[in-house]
Specification:
5 helices, seven-stranded mixed β-sheet, 9 strands, 2 domains, Rossmann fold, single chain, alpha/beta, globular, 174 residues, 27% strand, two-stranded antiparallel sheet
Amino acid sequence: METVRVLQVAGFKNSGKTTLIRTLIAEASSRGLRTATVKHHGHGGPPALPDSETDSMKFFREGAAVSAVSGDGVIQLHIREAETGPLQMIRLAAAVRPDLVLVEGFKQAPFEKIVLVRSAEDWEQLKSLPDIRLAITAGTEAPGAPEIIAREDTEAIRGWFGRWLKGGTGHVHL
């Protein structure tokens, strides 16, 4: 059975999830690792689509279950599927054989995760999420977290991530 390493970043809106994932991608890239990302679109409705007059979007609009277009080393893929959570998206991402998949959102998913904590109220709501490995805090406590790093301590965050990468955990069976 195939596996892929997955690390999830969870937190509430505007907590810094995207910024953190960009930092993790840069760190993984500096180590020669190929990274894929999977994100929950938490803004209501479908994500923004490309210009509806492109051929691939015409196909999609007419009911194609999948519309893909390729050019200059980039593939754009649109799939019409009932939302099923992150595992299906991870499986798709795994098709390009990344060393790591970073997941943004999908708080309840059962992956090893970093939680971003802005307040004591955030921690109260996040502390029961499955498989928390690190809490990144913005001047607040996170009692019971396995490890805590201050949000502004980018070097400590990068160091933690490097140790996580070397630790070999986070494998998800596809």
